[in-house]
Amino acid sequence: MLRIAVPNKGSLSGPASAMLHEAGYRMRKESKELVVVDPENEVEFFYLRPKDIAIYVSSGKLDIGITGRDLLLDSGASAEEILPLNFGRSTFRYATTPGTAKGPEDFTGMTIATSYEGIVAKHLADQGIDASVVHLDGAVETAIQLGVAQIIADVVETGTSLRNAGLEVIGEPILTSEAVVIRGNGADADDPQVQQFLRRLQGVLVARSYVMMDYDCRAEHLERAVALTPGLESPTVSPLHNEGWVAVRAMVPAKEAQRIMDDLYELGARAILTTSIHACRL
């Protein structure tokens, strides 16, 4: 069986399980379950701490795993990203009190507090900056107030919590992260079970990003209509009973669907419908 690591808690856990469920896999029913066997799909899911997943996968005990790009890089594990999953996005930034520093070039001799010591140490080393890094688990904003560090490095979403603590974001982002599928370095890239798993997740990603659009239009307007709805390869066009009319079906980006419907209507198209896509293979 394919052995897959899944986050057991935190911000990645729910979305990861939802995506796997959409991909047709059996998920746990209770949070106490640590291992779920899915015999129909020949998969075993192991629910682990997100920070530990890269270590398990790099050891070869598990074939692949779902974790954050930041957690993968911070772990220093011998594992690699093979598929971004488009959820759990975050940005990793430096922050400090106003006037302390403008960016990493001013960090020499200072101490940076962070929960992601591996990422920060590598970022500083890559830029040739001689600064100290102290590891803290959570609530790093108070490190400056308590005199533990002059700089912090943490995940930043809106920046509100930092401003409330009297801090400002400085420098360029250290890292932009999201949930990713990982495998151990040197693992068989053509493993049929892994490839099937990735195709299923890719199908979910596409299904979430597109809708199916159907509409009727006059034949003389078809070329202009098809230009608005080219589909992934080309749309399906069928003649209608009423002479001079055709029915068109095509996949369109979900975020653009309303605008496309407006444009089609102005073109003279009617009976314009959109339907959700639950799964697909491209």
From TrEMBL:
Name it: ATP phosphoribosyltransferase
What stretch or stretches form a coiled coil here? none
Q: In which pathway does it act?
A: Amino-acid biosynthesis; L-histidine biosynthesis; L-histidine from 5-phospho-alpha-D-ribose 1-diphosphate: step 1/9
Q: Which organism is it from?
A: Streptomyces virginiae (Streptomyces cinnamonensis)
Domain ATP phosphoribosyltransferase catalytic spans what residues?
49-203
Top-tier EC class: transferase
Domain Histidine biosynthesis HisG C-terminal: residue ranges: 207-278
Keyword field: Amino-acid biosynthesis, ATP-binding, Cytoplasm, Glycosyltransferase, Histidine biosynthesis, Magnesium, Metal-binding, Nucleotide-binding, Transferase
Recorded GO MF terms: glycosyltransferase activity
| Superkingdom per UniProt | Bacteria
Per the entry, what modulates this protein's activity? Feedback inhibited by histidine.
> Where does the protein end up?
Cytoplasm
Cofactors per UniProt?
Answer: Mg(2+)
Q: Which family does it belong to?
A: Belongs to the ATP phosphoribosyltransferase family. Long subfamily.
Source taxonomy lineage? Bacteria, Bacillati, Actinomycetota, Actinomycetes, Kitasatosporales
Function as written in the Swiss-Prot or TrEMBL entry: Catalyzes the condensation of ATP and 5-phosphoribose 1-diphosphate to form N'-(5'-phosphoribosyl)-ATP (PR-ATP). Has a crucial role in the pathway because the rate of histidine biosynthesis seems to be controlled primarily by regulation of HisG enzymatic activity.
**Which catalytic reaction applies to this protein?**
1-(5-phospho-beta-D-ribosyl)-ATP + diphosphate = 5-phospho-alpha-D-ribose 1-diphosphate + ATP
Question: Phosphoprotein: present as a keyword of the record?
Answer: no
EC number(s): the record gives: 2.4.2.17
Q: Does the keyword ATP-binding apply?
A: yes
